[in-house]
């Protein structure tokens, strides 16, 4: 039986560049569609430009590098990396690339980017996949739990009337997610496919202790707080809202983002997030204003993704070429 001929180097380079162009094309397409549709809708409302929109866009974008810093610290902690092999700057660059790849449905691009980077960096791919799960679970917990508590305190139990699914569904999803914070259970679950695919078990050191999981759950509130602040800034340029509505408005946006992520089959939660924002905000302000705010939020968050792309391009040069995501 003859061995297969090795793939020529030029063919490998062609495949790599072809895949890169394809991925960038898909991301650029969905990004352009989101930007164009929301730009047209906002233009139709004849809104006057407000300088606070720039600040809100910057705040939206800043949540991504903050998330990258938290994820990078988690990788260093579990990788037993006292020398700082995964520097904070590199973690931010990897996070920015994964964030931009969210436009590929199902978050496939996001996780593949981190796994491929891990292979280049020499970090365990299994560990990086586990931290990806942790990151998303902690972000969901930081999104759903405080938001539901704030909305219940603001609107009262009647919110469970026609809007019961809005709150019950994400809370039910959190039940299995919180179990991931229990190290023995999460380790056992991961080892089931690991034994079949890798023919070995994943080291227990790749998992957070319960105390570490609780601490990270609180720390991942930071990017969600930034999201809420950005939303309140832009909402105040459309509707007359007072300080008593700041928390509910921020909670509405953060909860809508969490549910949009759960709609994994939709690129970046397009349409899902806006529907939930309008549903909640209409309890406080007229529906037309709520619709305009939801569209403006999508537009500015999309422009924020553009800032994330610029940050990625600028910081990527600081990473050795062979390790770049």
Describe the structure.
The protein has 325 residues and is mainly α. The chain has one domain. The protein is 72% helix and 0% strand. The protein contains twelve helices and no strands. The chain has helices at 9-44, 52-78, 88-100, 108-121, 125-155, 164-179, 183-197, 210-219, 221-235, 246-262, 272-281, 287-316. Helix 4 (108-121) packs antiparallel against helix 5. The radius of gyration is 21 Å and the shape is globular. The two termini are 38 Å apart. Residues 265-270 have low confidence and may be disordered.
Please write out the topology.
Elements (H helix, E strand, L loop, with lengths): L8 H36 L7 H27 L9 H13 L7 H14 L3 H31 L8 H16 L3 H15 L12 H10 L1 H15 L10 H17 L9 H10 L5 H30 L9
Helix pairs in contact: 1-12, 2-3, 2-5, 2-9, 2-12, 3-4, 3-12, 4-5, 5-6, 5-8, 5-10, 9-10, 10-11, 11-12
Q: Which structural traits does this protein have?
A:
325 residues; mainly alpha; 12 helices; globular
Question: What Rg is obtained from the alpha carbons, in whole angstroms?
Answer: 21 Å
Number of helical segments? 12
Give the ordered list of helices and strands: HHHHHHHHHHHH
User: Helix coverage percent of residues?
Assistant: over 70%
The backbone outline, from C-alpha atoms, is globular
**Beta-strand proportion:** under 5%
Number of separate domains: 1
SS-derived structural category: mainly alpha
Low-confidence runs of at least 5 consecutive residues: 265-270
